[in-house]
Amino acid sequence: MFYRPEDGHGLPHNPFNALITPRPIAWISTRDGEGRANLAPYSFFNGTAYVPPQVMFASTGQKPDREGTKDSLANIRETGVFCINVVEEAMRDAMNVTTEMLPREVDEFERAGLEKAECESIDCPRIAGAPASLECRLDQVIRLHGEANYITLGTVTGIQLRDNCLRDGIFDVTTFRPLSRLGYRDYAVVENVFTLARPDD
């Protein structure tokens, strides 16, 4: 099968997201200029550099009360900071609660029953008890083709690691089984880990 996206695929559901899997989930916490917290997951997300550590996520779509974007990006533009929380399998239902499109004044931490903690290096809330949290300062927002498509780039200014996720000096993902996004409404957990040595090691 071959199709051109502009012509449509003719399938019951768009296969595009199912082709780029698994995708890590950035559970992004922000605070707006009036001090209201927001929490939402984004699966177009990744690290982009080691030194200094940098990340990116893409926001697509918009809300009627946010003038062409969503709460997360609007808040980041106001404050210049955001926090990426790592999603573990045990928090999957809470994460799913925060996918709901809600009015900007609703606090998703409270709605999902999650405890807040303050970040150390930026003025932003994070999820208390998350396996890891990356505190980020905004570098730039890039407008993409299409309506309400943006990439946000940030530099990591602080990293929180949950103590029980460290084993022999290594951040061990098997201790919390990270959640990843597949296509459609499907998710997966990391449970099969193996090591490959590079040929030049």
UniProtKB/TrEMBL annotation:
Residues 18-173 form the Flavin reductase like domain. GO terms for molecular function: FMN binding; oxidoreductase activity, acting on the CH-NH group of donors, NAD or NADP as acceptor. Pfam families: Flavin_Reduct (PF01613). PANTHER family: BLR2425 PROTEIN, FLAVIN REDUCTASE LIKE DOMAIN-CONTAINING PROTEIN. This is NADH-FMN oxidoreductase RutF, flavin reductase (DIM6/NTAB) family.
